[in-house]
Amino acid sequence: MLAQSLSRLPGLGPRSARRAVLWLIKRRDTALVQLLDALDVLKDRLVECQTCGNVDTANPCAICADTRREARSICVVEDVADLWALDRARLFTGKYHVLGGRLSALDGVRPEDLSIGKLIERVAAGGIDEVVLAMNATLEGQTTAHYIAERLEAYPRAGDGAGAWLAGGGRAGLPR
C-alpha cells in the first residue's frame, strides 16, 4: 500500500517506490519516524500564502514576511515549483506571485482561472516599481506573459523603477 502511494509521486515509479519502502523499513526507528512526523506536520500546517500563492506552513509565507526582500519588485511565475527553483538559485531578491498555471485555449484555462486578478490588485495598490514576468518559453507561457503585460500597462509605476520586464529582458509594459 505504501509503495503504491509513493509510486504516484512525480519521479517515482513502482520500482523506485518499492526501494524507498524497503529503505524505510530498514530504518524504521530513525528515518521512518522522522518522515511520518514531517508528513503529519505538513498535513496539519500546510497553507497557501494569501499574498503570493506560495505554499508554506505560515501565512504570509516566509518570502512575503522577509523584510530584507525588495518589496517594490514582483516576479510572476506559473507555479510554486518555479518559485522554489528561482528562489533556491537566488536569481531574484524581490517578492513573488504564483499564477497557478498558464493560459491555454486548448486546456480551457482562462485568465479568471489564474491569480492574475490578485496580481493586478497588488500592483494597483501601489508601491511596485518592477514586475518580472518569468513565464516558461512555451506558446502558453508567452501568451500569459503578453496578457499580463497588457493588463499592467494601465498602472503607473511607483517610482523610477524599470517597469514590467519579460524574464528574457525585453520591455513588456508599465509606461514610463
How would you characterize the overall build of this protein?
By secondary structure, this protein is α/β, with parallel strands linked by helices. The protein has two domains: 2-45, Helicase, Ruva Protein, domain 3 (Orthogonal Bundle); 55-173, Dna Topoisomerase Vi A Subunit, Chain: A, domain 2, CATH 3.40.1360. Helices cover 41% and strands 16% of the residues. The protein is built from seven helices and seven strands. α7 (139-152) links the parallel β5 (130-133) and β6. The radius of gyration is 20 Å and the shape is elongated. The model is unreliable at 160-176 (pLDDT under 50).
Give a short overview.
Helices cover about 40% and strands about 15% of the residues. The protein has helices at about 1-5, 15-25, 30-45, 60-65, 80-90, 115-125, 140-150; strands at about 45-50, 55, 70-75, 95-100, 130-135, 165, 170-175.
Structure characteristics:
elongated; disordered C terminus; 5-stranded mixed β-sheet; two-stranded antiparallel ribbon; 176 residues; Dna Topoisomerase Vi A Subunit, Chain: A, domain 2; 7 helices; Helicase, Ruva Protein, domain 3; alpha/beta
How far apart are the termini?
Answer: 59 Å
Envelope shape: elongated
How many distinct folded domains?
Answer: 2
Give the ordered list of helices and strands. Answer: HHHEEHEHEHEHEE
User: Which runs of at least 5 residues are low in confidence (pLDDT < 50)?
Assistant: 160-176
For the biggest β-sheet, the strand order reads: 4-3-5-6-7
Set down the secondary structure blueprint:
Layout: H1 2-7, H2 14-26, H3 28-45, E1 47-48, E2 55-56, H4 62-65, E3 70-77, H5 80-88, E4 94-98, H6 116-124, E5 130-133, H7 139-152, E6 163-166, E7 171-173
Parallel strand pairs: 3-4, 3-5, 5-6
Antiparallel strand pairs: 1-2, 6-7
